[in-house]
Amino acid sequence: MQILTLYAATLILFLALDAIGITLIVKPVFDRHVGDLLADPLRLGPAVLFYLAYVAGILWFVSAPALSEGQPLRALAGGILLGLMCYGTYEFTNLATLRGWTWQQVAIDTAWGGALTGFSAWAGLAVTRMIHG
């Protein structure tokens, strides 16, 4: 039951924070540099698959081990590292292969991914510990 709580809490936090971050931080930069490449409307199916799988990855690699060890700061640090690696992979690949991709996009989205993943992993763990003691 703890794992279900951990997954739900992490997913809800991740989605809420990412909606804010995309709107205020990421989308304005992407609109400026590659706005003509953005899907309109957003394709929800792939987005849903990404969020469900990515949060499962957060739990597998970061949150579940930190929960079993009682180490919430491990969730924060591991989440930051995982986010930097995953978002950085996307960003650096795009920078290497797509015309018009910029270092500004790489820096902003990679930093956002690290902060978002780290905080969501830590906060999801905190909520789970609060609920399950």
Number of helices: 4
Number of strands: 0
What is the C-alpha radius of gyration, as a whole number of Å? 16 Å
Helix proportion: over 70%
Strand content: under 5%
Low-confidence stretches: none
Short description:
With 133 residues, this protein is mainly alpha-helical. Helix content is 86%, strand content 0%. This is DUF2177 family protein.
Structural write-up:
The protein has 133 residues and is mainly alpha-helical. The chain has four helices and no strands. It has one domain. It is 86% helix and 0% strand. α1 packs antiparallel against α4 (103-132) and α2 runs antiparallel to α3 (72-97). InterPro entries: DUF2177_membr. This is DUF2177 family protein.
Q: What are its keywords?
A:
4 helices; 133 residues; mainly alpha; elongated
Q: Which secondary structure elements does this structure contain, and how are they paired or packed?
A:
Elements: H1 2-34, H2 44-69, H3 72-97, H4 103-132
Helix pairs in contact: 1-2, 1-4, 2-3, 2-4, 3-4
